[in-house]
Amino acid sequence: MTGKSKFGFEPLAPDSVKPRKREVGPMGAAVREAAGSLAESTESLVEQRRQNATDAKTFRTAQGEGRVLEVLRVDEIRTDDLPRDRIDLAATAGSDEMEELKSSIRARGQKEPIEVFRTETGFQLKKGWRRLTALKQLWQETGDPRFGTVTARVSLGPADRIDLYIDMVEENVIREDLSFAEMAQVAITAAGDGSLDGQGADALVGRIFASLHKMKRSYIRSFVFLLQELGDVLPYPKAISRNLGVEVARRIQASPETSQSLRQALVSVSSIEEQTDVLSRNSLASASRDTTGRGASPKKAVKYEFHVGKAKITARKGECRILSDTDFSAVDRKRLQSAIEAFHRALEEE
C-alpha cells in the first residue's frame, strides 16, 4: 500500500506544513472592539448605578439624622412650634450680647449652623434662635442678601416630641447659658403641650434634663414650684439666684400662707434689686419664725445672694461678702472706712 489517496496525493509531512496565519479583518476588528467597549461600558454603568444607590441611601440616612446642611431663606423658618428656652425673648433680642453676635456675623459671617426640622407646613427651628434672630435683624437693617439666608442642619421631626425639647435646651445647658428659672419654664411649658400626654412639670424635668446631675434637677424642680406659685408677679425671674430661689420655694412649701403676702409685696417691685430684697426679706422673716421645740434639731444657717450693679453680695450669719471688679485695695482707706460706717448706720436704722 503506497499511502497515496485515491486522488493520487501522498500525505504531507508535518514539518513541511506551514500554519496558516489568519488576521482579523477590518470588520471583525470593529466588531470585537465594539463588543469589548460594550462589555466595559455595561460593567462601568452597573458599578455607577450601584454607587449611586449607596450614595442615595447614605444621604437619606444623614438627612434623617440631621447631618445634612442646607442654605435656607431666613423667612422660611418658623419658630412657633416650640417655646424658646429663654423667658424674656424681647430683652434677649435687644441685648448687648445680641449686638455682639451681629457684629461677629457682619464681620465673619455665620460660623455655626442652626438646626431645623421639617414639618408639613415647612421648616421649624430646633436650635439656634439667637443666630437666626441676629441674621433676621441684620437683613432688615441692611438689606444685604448674604444675611437673608442661613446655613441650617435639616432633619425630619423626631418620632417622640419630648426629643425636641431635649434637643432645644441641650446646647444652652451644656454651655451653662440658661438660668434655673428658664430651665424651669421649659418644663412648665412642656407640661402644657398636648402631645406629651399630660405629664406634669416635675416629671418632665427628669426627662428633659436627664443628663444633668440629680441635685441640679432638684434645683430646677424648686424653681418650677416657685414659678407656678409666683411666676405672674415675678418681673425678673432670671435674676433669682439658685440659693435664693430654692430657699424661697422651700419656705413657701413649709408655710403656704406666706405665698399671698409675698405676691402682694412683689407686685410693686420695679428693679432686680427690689425683687431680690423682697424675696430675701421673706426668706429671713420665715427663718426668724422657725423655732426649735423640745428634741427638735437646730435651725439651719440662712444664706442668700443678690446683685447690686456688677457686684455680687453674699449674706450669712456674721458675714457680708462683696465680690466685684473694684480693686478695694486701691480705694483710700478713710473713704472705704467711711463707706463701711455708713453701711452699718443704715443697718442700725433699719
From TrEMBL:
One Pfam family in the UniProt entry: ParB_N
Coiled-coil regions, chain positions: none
Residue stretches making up the ParB-like N-terminal domain: 74-139
Domain of life of the organism encoding this protein: Bacteria
UniProt region (Disordered), positions on chain: 1-57
Name used for this protein in its record: Chromosome partitioning protein ParB
Organism: Paracoccus liaowanqingii
